[in-house]
Design brief:
homodimer; Rossmann fold; 3 domains; 7-stranded mixed sheet; 6-stranded parallel sheet; about 15% strand; globular
Chain lengths: ~525, ~525
């Protein structure tokens, strides 16, 4: 058995049954093994950031790691930005990078690079498999690392000779270590603060933002009168009817500080300390008020739902109903604004849809409107590396299909500037006939940056405008999508957009709407 | 003066007058400084691999470093693959990466990453500027490093507070150290081998492949009867009428070994030892025969032309005329083949055109045909990280314009699979109205990989075909280019292609031909 064959068998045994791939010369034996050993579904991306972003989306929906297949250091490098986002989402990925043969590597052939060095910054675990005999056991450890709670990136570097040589041994699945144990002192302390103080905020992160965590948070809120909100970015936020109406900490610093100011105590339930996305002159790095005390209930690596349950028990908090989210917005009409768009999405959203949100400047308004919409998953940009949305939607749709939920509609809300980073994902959506409706907010500029530039206090002259404006030439998104096999149309009003959206929901295929904003 | 302002002044003083950019929030003060301080022309790329590939192309034509402007670790990561190619081309780049404020970085905000770690693998020099007062002097060192012979990547990481704080001091230009001195023993040894032995190959690399190096190599060839060829990949190869007809070592191992087999001695003039691009089972890593002796005349970092001159002197080799390259091929007609395409290019090539070659599987045939074409520069993929061609063409055209040679036509020969990696470059070509004619070889597959897969000895089943075929859906390159503002048309015959090409040469604008092969 070749090393490559032992790898495929180990993946299948370990439950890794999807591989997002962009292979190269050094991976041909692995491709051959994937070809003749059944059990792993392979999906091609035309650039590696599509591959890694899709693997992230797959995990966020399935909570199971997929494999990737990348080609040498530069292929890995192309996928690092979305691995960065996946790391911030705490997604598990078995990140497989083919590389030069062990004995060829010292000769520094042109495509040789520091593959391990580049992998480290995004990976919880990195190993280069030095011979065929070890491929299976190394892969088993990689799967274990990827599955380690709540999910990690494990990079397995596979030199071509480890792949093609005989001597492969299938790796037996390894048991996954349990999450870091809860600290009873932290539970007691959080209960004491919540019981004694009146100005307490419970800040949810990680799986605290899934349905079960929200239910428990509601009991705590009802019993103690604390306020419950969530961190800004999270791998997966379950929202809509029947879920707790929860505000997120806003992205802009001033709004975030205003929201957190009243609270003398913040209990962190899987959330990190509320740090600003960037520093600004004469503004603090953190968004909570000076003097506010932070109390860790559970760290992101711990079992957050279990921590919330322990807190409920400690407080003897009785069950409490989730309050009604109010009426779902009516379908609006007329001009396109962030508000009318949000209301439209809310009105039209199918049950159990998946919203992928890389709307950047256009989308900051639509959290509240969709609270009363049909239940849905919300997958935002977690790490701030733009170009996440289209690949994430691709992987989320594949993930839903893998779970037998192939009818879940994915709605991909995408800023145009960020969308251009990974536009190649549309082709994979077409090839795989994925039920994704992409809405491009075509403002033809880096809208968020124009806002940031304004904060610098300078008027934009021609050079600055030239670096922040995308209007010369205007990108024709309908033509662009069509060229990659995705049907598309333009909308200048909410009415047209709503019509297109409804039509798109009827197809088992992607569709793109260029929203002229 | 803010740190950002001192940076722009230092760049201008140091002769860095072009900046390829994709800025983000943390770079807004730098953008503002570029906006109000004249002297640096800024060119926007829609993804960072466009930016870095263009900076590479700019250097290859101008032999002057441009600056880049990238956003944080993930923005750098997106541009690493073309920095890898630039490093292999030995291009000088002042690679500027904005990043989190020094005091904000420890808090690990979502976009925080190991920027320095990622930079190291491609950079000869890396520094993070820790305060505004040091921006100018650090930038001066970065420029010095980028200009160090033959060209290096110098990465300057610019935290946002170093950029926005007052206290900036303009850095005075630093003198660039001379290339590593030649070794008289190596010159004498090469002369001795060339004088005594009959089976000697002179292998040119680096600037040995420019006009002056070729002239001297010709004298040595005429005086000693050695054979002169070049390494496979090189930043810039001056070719065509009046230049020495030189074969390159072929990419495929068998052909490379066959070419090198007869030679007992190889004199390396700026070339590296002939290592295979990849290892293959039961094939040697190096392409020269066992027992062949390698003799270094000059390393790539040394002054190769000076070394060839010293060798000429040592040999007392008299001037010898460059032999005539033979007649230029006639314009062919009919079906598109690698050979007919090559002949067409040769027949139509304008004087001093720039050919950017990422044609991969389609292009391996056309070296000989273009030998007798008009004099031109040939810029190939150097590091094997695909997705180089379209950005490289963009930067080469900007570079020619910067040298007052804005009428030089760039012909960008591009495989479709690789072209999809960095297709966003077409938009920059349209925006800058660059005289680039792109020819896409639309075979709708990873042709080179299908060849490699064949070598594995397996028949491709559905899974393998699915990972190597791009035909489902077929990408419509005419529509794709048009959507990004580049006029385009299809050609199914050489005649139509030739017509389109001639028409394109008349415009100060990009044009794309989708060649259906």
């Amino acid at each position: 058995m070749r090393g490559a064959e032992s790898l495929v068998h180990t993946l299948v045994k370990g439950g890794v049954d999807h591989c997002f791939a962009n292979p190269g010369t050094s991976e041909m034996h692995f491709v051959a093994a994937l070809d003749h050993i059944p059990g792993v579904r392979c999906i091609l991306g035309l650039q590696e950031n599509i591959v890694t972003g899709a693997a992230d989306g797959f995990f966020r929906i399935t909570e199971k790691p997929a494999a990737t297949l990348l080609h040498c250091g530069p292929g890995l490098a192309n996928g690092l930005a979305n691995l960065h986002n996946a790391r911030r989402a705490r997604s598990g990925i078995v990140n497989i990078v083919g590389d030069q043969a062990t004995y060829h590597r010292p000769f520094d052939a042109p495509l040789t690079a520091d593959t391990e060095g580049w992998a480290r910054g995004v990976s919880a675990w990195v190993r280069t498999t030095v011979k065929a005999e070890l491929v299976g056991s190394d892969a088993a450890v990689a799967i274990q690392a990827a599955r380690t709670h709540p999910g990690q990136i494990a990079t397995l570097i596979l030199p071509s000779d480890s792949s093609w040589n005989e001597g492969g041994v299938v790796g037996e699945p390894l048991s996954v270590p349990p999450p870091v144990a809860l600290d009873p002192h932290q539970i007691k302390n959080a209960a004491r603060i919540l019981g004694e103080k009146k100005n307490v905020l419970l800040l949810l992160g990680g799986k605290g933002m899934h349905e079960e965590g929200q239910k428990l948070a509601r009991w705590i809120e009802a019993a103690t009168g604390c306020r419950v909100i969530t961190e800004t970015y999270n791998g997966r936020f379950q929202r809509g009817r029947g879920r707790l109406p929860l505000e997120r900490i806003p992205y802009p610093g001033a709004a975030a500080r205003a929201m957190l100011k009243p609270y003398g105590h913040i209990v962190l339930a899987g959330a990190r300390s509320p740090v600003g996305f960037f520093a600004y002159p004469n503004q603090p790095s953190f968004h909570h008020a000076e003097g506010t005390e932070l109390h860790v209930l559970a760290r992101p690596e711990q079992n957050i739902v279990q921590a919330l349950q322990a807190l409920v028990d400690e407080l003897s908090a009785p069950p409490a109903a989730i309050p009604d989210g109010g009426p779902c917005p009516e379908l609006p009409s007329g001009a396109i604004t962030p508000e009318s768009f949000a209301a439209m999405i809310a009105a039209l959203l199918p049950e159990q849809a998946i919203i992928v949100d890389e709307s950047i400047s256009f989308g900051r308004a639509y959290g509240p409107a969709t609270q009363a919409a049909a239940p849905h998953d919300w997958l935002p940009l977690t790490g701030g590396a733009i170009g996440c949305g289209l690949p994430l939607a691709t992987g989320a749709a594949v993930g839903a299909r893998a779970m037998g939920q192939g009818d879940r509609r994915v709605i991909s809300c995408q800023a145009d500037g960020s969308g251009m980073y990974t536009v190649q994902a549309l082709w994979t959506q077409a090839r795989e006939k994925l039920p994704i409706t992409t809405v491009i907010f075509a403002n033809h500029k880096y809208g968020s940056l124009l806002g940031e530039y304004g904060n610098v206090g300078a008027n934009a002259g021609p050079t600055a405008v030239n670096m922040l404006d995308l209007g010369n030439p205007s990108i024709d998104w309908v033509q662009l999508a069509t060229s990659l096999g995705v049907e598309a149309a333009q909308a200048r009003t909410i009415d047209v957009c709503a019509d297109l959206m409804r039509q798109s929901f009827k197809r088992q295929a992607p569709f793109l709407i260029e929203l002229l904003t």
